[in-house]
Amino acid sequence: xxxxxxxxxxxxxxxxxxxxxxxxxxxxxxxxxxxxxxxxxxxxxxxxxxxxxxxxxxxxxxxxxxxxxxxxxxxxxxxxxx
Length: 82
Known about the structure:
This protein has one domain. The chain is elongated, with a radius of gyration of 14 Å. The protein is of the alpha+beta class. It is built from one helix and four strands, in the order ββαββ.
């Protein structure tokens, strides 16, 4: 996903989990996936007249919750842009 938070362009990887016992949100995106997301960011930024401030975020959605509702966790600036 790509979206804005105020004047910051956010490239967002969404991970779904059935339980929180797996990798924590910070470890959910490995080196290969980071490389791929950096490529998406470069291509997206290339089409803008002026490059804004931007970052990579990771959202983890955990599906097993006693209430039947999913829990979400957002990690802003999940990994470096370079």
